[in-house]
Design brief:
The protein is 54% helix and 12% strand. The protein is α+β, with helices and mostly antiparallel strands. Strands 1-8-7-6 form a four-stranded antiparallel beta sheet. A four-stranded antiparallel beta sheet has the order 2-3-4-5, with no helix packed on it. The radius of gyration is 27 Å and the shape is globular. The chain has 20 helices and 13 strands.
Length: 639
């Protein structure tokens, strides 16, 4: 790398880092003239680069750069021509205009009137599942607006935001006639250009050695359980098939018991008790269980702050209350702004579920003449599926296959596991079809289900490339991705969501967005151990560097697609595709960091040591995007 290229490389890295540091600045910075000038300079630089390099001779690369030109241009158009505000509609009262966020009165294209506002609740619960407004337009048409379903009228878009509690509806309104079109056109060009470039480089023909040390461990030691009365295993098993109403769904008691046991204890069994035995014993012997430490608390600092001198990481309900009945975690809760508040909220959720169980509110046993009872075959299938836990089995099989394939490269053994992969793929597909039969719909309502679905699809793809005798390295890397997806799906089952989600989150966009982002992190994450090994083992540096470079394109492309899906979901839900939220900002920074080595002009691939050091350092951006932003004021904060 000559001096000029090195200077340009440093400027690109510093600019990416600068974009990340803006997440620590006031939100007003993003609407300042300085910020606009910076991105205008980036736009001009992109255009100059495209024309000076005759980039149109390489169509996929040309499309990728045009995509960013279109997206940045769309951002400028949005900032100039768009406006947004809030509408408060009351029944039978026509609205002609609204006041935007800058205090300017804006005329609507037509008079609109709220005909009816309805709240849909989860069956058997008082928690809202969806908000829906029926709005009449002066032209005679009717708009039906709900969470994740937009109402459209002559370029205006209406979003269901909230309600006033007295029959009125609160809508967000947005008008963006030019910017959104340009941005979405850029999204399309990015998807096409990146996909085209990826297809050109999909084959990995070099026989490279991949030295990745995988340590998979878990604390499987059984916890100590005091002597609490419990029902017999035979009685508990007979209750497994009893149908109950839980979160609006009819499911077997076995499913509720397993989810609650996982949630409270972090394990699928409590000592020698099955989930059914544990939950029934909790219900019958509340006073005895209140003294038993079975509630899992992962954060030892939280236990220390609560002054709980406990051997282990389990607490009893009685430990959480003082003698005068004061709830101790509430004394150290800082309103969501403290470092421990996230763990306190998780602990609160467990305690709330436990009290719902004791007060008979967690689930409702159904009588035999209930009209919506499921068939015995469906219930038996679900109980069998729960006890088999196929997701865990598929993870173990996938990780073993990937390690066998990748380690075989070390010994230059040309092996094939096509039949084994085929069998596992067919069983995984059968397992997912079984979930469809159990749930009665395509199960993509949670991140765990979405991860499992993508894992099944990629597993079938792994079988195809294995059958066609593609590189063993390619098959091995694909199987690593499969095992990672099954691992995330399995971990999701170990910490199930037991409360209904907010209406805005009840969207398939969420699962798709998170899944694609996690796949990109998985692929880019593989480059970390590869680059660490390349730095440490000089004799293998060049070969490992080539492998790492080949992983960059699919990982970066998937990250870009994940960001695009997130932007489209935000546009559907909130009426804006980008808000410079810290999570969004750092995802963009990560995309920029990993895109830099893909530019041939920097010639990083010709300096393996510098390249691998760079890859190791920029992995911190993934850590910051996934974890660090939780400590910033963000819509995506998961503390």
């Amino acid at each position: 790398m000559n001096r000029f290229r090195f200077v340009v490389f440093c400027v690109a890295v510093c600019f990416s880092l600068f974009v990340g540091t803006t997440s620590f600045m006031p939100e007003t910075f993003y609407s300042s003239a300085v910020w606009s000038c910076i991105w205008f300079a980036v736009l001009v630089l992109l255009l100059v680069t495209i024309f000076r390099s005759s980039m149109w001779k390489n169509p996929p690369v040309f499309l990728l750069h045009l995509a960013f030109v279109s997206i940045i241009s769309g951002g400028f158009l949005t900032s100039i021509y768009s406006y947004s505000g809030t509408l408060h509609l009351s029944t039978a009262q026509p609205i002609y205009s609204f006041v935007d966020t800058h205090g300017i009165s804006r005329q609507l294209p037509s008079e609109i009137t709220l005909v009816a506002f309805n709240t849909e609740y989860y069956s058997g619960m008082t928690f809202p599942k969806d908000f829906r407004s029926e709005v009449a337009v002066a032209t005679g048409d009717t708009m039906r607006i709900s969470m994740n379903h937009i109402g459209k009228l002559d370029g205006f878009r209406f979003y269901q935001t909230s309600f006033d509690g007295v029959g009125g509806s609160i809508l967000s309104v947005s008008y963006d006639p030019y910017g959104m079109v340009a941005v979405y056109f850029g999204f399309l060009m990015f998807a096409l250009g990146g996909g085209w470039l990826l297809l050109k480089r999909i084959r990995l023909n070099s026989r490279t050695i991949l030295l990745v040390l995988s340590v998979v461990g878990a604390g499987l030691c059984p916890q100590k359980i005091y002597a609490v009365p419990a029902v017999s295993r035979q009685t508990a098993d007979s209750l497994s098939y009893r149908q109950v109403l839980y979160n609006g769904d009819v499911i077997p008691f076995n499913t509720v018991a397993m989810r609650l046991t996982y949630k409270l204890t972090g394990k699928n069994n409590v000592g020698d008790l099955s989930p059914e035995q544990f939950v029934v014993s909790l219900i019958r012997y509340r006073e005895e269980w209140s003294k038993v430490p079975f509630i899992k608390v992962k954060n030892s600092k939280l236990l220390s702050e609560l002054n709980l001198n406990i051997d282990g990481d389990y607490v009893a309900v009685d430990n959480l209350y003082s003698r005068d009945g004061t709830y101790l975690p509430g004394l150290i809760y800082k309103g969501g702004h403290g470092n421990l508040d996230g763990d306190i909220i998780k602990l609160d959720e467990k305690v709330a579920l436990l009290f719902d169980l004791w007060n008979g509110k967690l689930f409702l046993p159904l009588p035999s003449d209930y009209p919506d009872l499921r068939s015995e075959i469906s219930i038996s299938t679900e109980v069998f599926y729960n006890r088999l836990n196929p997701t865990k089995l598929f993870f173990i099989c996938s990780i073993l296959i990937s390690l066998i394939l990748l380690l075989s490269l070390t010994f230059h053994k040309d092996i094939t596991l096509h039949l084994t992969i085929l069998i596992i793929g067919m069983l995984a597909l059968l397992s997912f079809l079984c979930k469809i039969y159990i749930s009665g719909h395509f199960p993509l309502s949670s991140t765990s289900e979405m991860m499992e679905f993508i894992a099944v699809v990629i597993l079938l793809f792994a079988d195809y490339i294995s059958y066609r005798r593609f590189s063993i390295l390619l098959v091995g890397i694909v199987m690593i991705c499969v095992s990672f997806l099954f691992l995330v799906a399995w971990l999701g089952l170990k910490d199930p969501v037991m409360t209904p989600v907010m209406p805005v989150l009840a969207s398939p966009w969420l699962s798709i967005h998170v899944s694609v982002i996690m796949i990109s992190y998985a692929i880019l994450g593989i480059t970390l151990p590869v680059s660490v090994t390349a730095i440490a083992v000089k004799s293998q540096r060049e070969r490992l560097t080539n492998l790492s470079i080949k992983l960059l394109l699919p990982g970066t492309y998937m990250l870009g697609i994940g960001i695009i899906i997130g932007a489209m979901w935000a546009n559907v839900s909130w009426g804006r595709y980008w808000a410079w939220d810290p999570k969004e900002t750092w995802a963009l920074v990560t995309l920029m960091f990993y895109s830099i080595p893909l530019h041939r002009s920097f010639r990083l691939r010709h300096t393996p040591l510098i390249y691998n050091i760079y890859i190791v350092v920029i992995f911190a951006s993934i850590v910051m995007t996934y974890y660090g932003v939780n400590y910033l004021p963000s819509l995506h904060s998961y503390k």
